[in-house]
Each structure stands twice: as structure tokens, then as C-alpha cells.
Design a protein that fits this description.
Layout (H helix, E strand, L loop, with lengths): L1 E7 L5 H10 L6 E5 L12 H5 L11 H12 L4 E7 L4 E9 L4 E5 L7 H4 L4 E6 L2 H15 L4 H20 L8 E4 L5 H17 L7
Parallel strand pairs: 1-5, 1-6, 2-5, 6-7
Antiparallel strand pairs: 3-4
Helix pairs in contact: 1-7, 5-6
Length: about 210
Amino acid sequence: MLIIGIAGGSGSGKSTVVKQVIKHLPKETVTIIPQDAYYKDNGHKSADERAKINFDHPTSIEWGLLLRQLEILKTGNPIEMPIYSYVTCARSKDTNLIRPSEVIIVEGILILTNPRLRNKLDIRVFVDADGDDRLMRIIRRDIEERGRSFQQVLEHYESFVKPMHLQFIEPTKRYADIIIPQGGQNKVAIDLLSSHIKTHINFGNYYPKR
């Protein structure tokens, strides 16, 4: 099993990179583990309290659960992955049944901030993008998918996203084996990463832990 971590700032194009990589690979060879599924359940909090949640701080993630479920997948067993809603800030009572495969991709802004998770990754990828481009994507996403107003998005970006990016996310670039500038638009980098993964699938290459 090959475990790949794909990190990068909010709005950098991580999800696009993942989708493009999957297109290059045989069906049913890749399992996606999104970091966002492991945000701590805050559904019990008031609307005002939920508005102050810092989703860009490493303490917002239930790392223990993510690591345990990753270990279960490595043993060849399925997991019940949480379903998290940004609108309610709560986990659903339902879960997603996730089965193991030859390639596991763990994707999220904070995955390279956790040393225990970093040590489980065979390949570490950082998706890089210009700050203005990321902000435009964040505005579009948060309005369309998370029900925020334009003003709320800007306030959230200024209070949480930008300072946390500079403090926690940008510095993790130094842990990356591969840096992909321009996100999903970088066809050359995506082709190289995809070819590397296909080599593992075809020949079962072993990646020793660091």
C-alpha cells in the first residue's frame, strides 16, 4: 500500500490535483481520506460560538481518530469515516464506508503539521498557489458551499485563514517531497506524480519509512 499526503493552503487547488491524479490511475486503485472529515464535532455549540471556530488550526482536527482509521486501512480492513458539515459544524450520525486500496491519498490543509501523520506518508506533496488566487477560490467556495456572506468570508480570512496559513501551513512546505506550483493547472507535475504512482501499482515498489 502506498500512502500519499497532499497538503497546501486553503484554496490552493488540492482537490483539483487529487481529481487529476485519479484520472490517470486504474479504477478502484485509490482511496481518498479527506482531512475535513475529521474536524472535531462542534454541533453542540451556539451559532455565535461556531462562527468563532478556527478550522485552520491543527487543534481543530481529531488526529487520533484519523491515525487509527489509517492504520485500520493499512491492515486491509474498511473504516466508517465520519461525515462533517461546515454549515452545522457537526458530524452526521451516518458515516461513509471506506475500503482500503493499493493507494491511499490523505488530503487537507493541515496534514503535514502532524508529525505522527507525516511519518506514515510515503510521499508528501505540497500544492502551492498565489495568495490572491487562493483568496478568490475561498470566496467562491465559502459563499456557494458554506453559506457565508462576502463580508463574512473576508472577516474569516483575515482573522483565521491568512494568519494560520502563515503560522502553520506555509512552513510545512519544507516537509514536502514534491511541490506543485499552480495547483491543478500544473499538468507536468500531475503527470509526473501520476506516473510515479502507476509505477508503484504496476511493480509493487516498496517505500521504506523515514
